[in-house]
C-alpha cells in the first residue's frame, strides 16, 4: 500500500469513528480520534501488526475499539488525553497570543478603516461626517473609552483637533490608502498619549480605567486561583502516591484491593498531568507579573519626562512632544496586552478543572482520607529531602558518568528524561509514577539525563539502561497518556506532539562538566594595508582603460509597445545637441604702398621764374 493510500484509509477510519461517537451522543474532535487510533494500534494487547496491510476485519475491529475507548465515561486515562489535547491546542506563547489578539483587533477595525480610506467626500457635510468617523476609529483603535459616550467623544475630538485639524482633511484625502492607514494608526497613538497625559494632570481622562489598579487586582486573583488549584492537585497526587506505595509494599501492603492498581495509576497520571499544566500556567503568570511591574515603572518615567517637557511652556515643537505621547500610548497598550494574557491564563486554568472529575469518582476524597488514616503522607519535597542523604558513589561504576549539583554548572537546568520520574520504579512497579531526586545522582547516558527515587533504583537502572528505557516505552504503549506526560515522543515516531508551542521557545542549556581552553598570540601585530585595486600588469590596466573609454559611446535605449504604454513610466536618454560650425574658405587681402608725392615751388611770384621741385616719398614695394 502506498503512502497516499494509507493516509486515505486512516482518514476514513478517523471519520467513521467520529461519526459513530456522534451518533451515540458524544462529540469528539478529529485530533482526539487520531491520537486514539494510533494508541489502539500501538497497544500490544490489541495485536495489530503495523507492518502488514489492515484487512476489513482489522479496520472494523479498530473502529470498535476506538469507539469503546472514547465512550468510556469512567476512564481517567481518557480524561487525561482530553486534557492534553485541550492544552496543547489552546496553549501558545506570549508572542503568538498577542499577535493573534492584534490580528483579531485589526479584523474588527477593518470595516471602519476601509470606510475612511476609501471615502470620496463631495461637500462640507460629508467631510464633517468623515472626521467623526476618524474620531470613532481613534477610540476603537486605542481601546480606551466608548465611541457612544458623548463626553469621551468630545475629549477625543478635542485631542485630535490639536494634532490634526479639519483644515488638513484635504491633504489626508490626497494620500494613498496605505499612507492613510499609517496616519490613522499614528493619530490613534498620539491622541491616546494626550488623553493619558490629561488624565494624569487632572484635566480629562473620560472613560479611561485605572489599569495599574485593575492589573494589581487581576494578578492577585489569578495567582490565588492558580495556586489554590495547584495545591489541591499536589496534595491529591501525594495522597494517591502514598496509597500506591502502601499497595506495593510487600510487607505492610494488602494482598488484594477493591480498586485495581492500573485504575489508580490512571488517576495519578491524571492528577500529575493537571499539576504539570498548572505549573506552566503559573510560570506564565509570573512573567506577566514581572512585565506589568516593568511597564508601570516605564509609565511613571515617561509621564515624568513628558511633564518636564511641556511644563511652563506655551508652544512646543511637535517633533519634540509627539514621540513622548507615542511612547506613553505604547506602554499603555502593553498594559492592555497583559490584561488579555492574564484573562487567557485564568480561563485556561479554569477549563482544565473538568478533566479531573473522573478520577475523583474512582476514589472519592473522603474514602481516600479514610484509607490513609494513620499513614504518613509525604510531599515530593519531603520525600526528596529524606533520600538526599544516600547519594550514588561514582567510583563504583566504570564508563558511566554521574552528575551532581556540587560539580556541575547549570545543574538545575538539565533536561531530565521522563519529566523527572524514576524510570526504574515505573518499570518495576508496573507504571507507578514516583518523582526522582537529582541529588542522589543524575545518570548521563547517550547525552540524556535520568534521575531516580533511591540509590538502589539508580544502581539497577545504570546496570541495564537500554533495557529499562525499552520497557518504559512498552508501558507507555498500554497507557498512551504517558507519551505526552513523560515526553516520550522520540520513542514513538508515529505519535507526535499536538503542538510544538510548549517546547518551541524553551532554550536547552547544556551542563558545563568540562572546559577546554587555549591561548594564542597574534600573527600580525600591525594592521595590513593592502590596496585591492592595485594591478601590476600593464595590459590589465590597458584593458580597464579601454573599457572605460567604450562607456562614453554607450546609449541608454528603451522601447514601448501598444500594450505596455500607459502602464509604466518609460524614459529615454540621448546626448543633447551642441552648437557647431564649419568653414570652407577664408578671407584674404593684399596691399601696395600708398603713393606719397609732394610738389614744391608752384606758387611762384615776383620777377623770378617758377621753379617746381617734385619729391616722391612713396615707400618701396619690397620693404
TrEMBL record:
Keyword match Cell membrane: no
Top-level taxon: Eukaryota
Keywords linked to the UniProt accession: Cell projection, Cilium, Cilium biogenesis/degradation, Cytoplasm, Cytoskeleton
Start and end residues of each stretch annotated as Disordered: 559-595
One term under GO cellular component: ciliary basal body
InterPro entries according to UniProt: FAP206 (IPR021897)
Biased composition (Polar residues): 571-593
Compartments, as annotated in UniProt: Cytoplasm, Cytoskeleton, Cilium axoneme
UniProt GO BP: regulation of cilium beat frequency; regulation of flagellated sperm motility; sperm axoneme assembly
Role description: Essential for sperm motility and is involved in the regulation of the beating frequency of motile cilia on the epithelial cells of the respiratory tract. Required for the establishment of radial spokes in sperm flagella.
PANTHER family in UniProt: CILIA- AND FLAGELLA-ASSOCIATED PROTEIN 206
Family from the record: Belongs to the CFAP206 family.
Name of this chain's protein: Cilia- and flagella-associated protein 206
Organism: Conger conger
Higher taxonomy: Eukaryota, Metazoa, Chordata, Craniata, Vertebrata
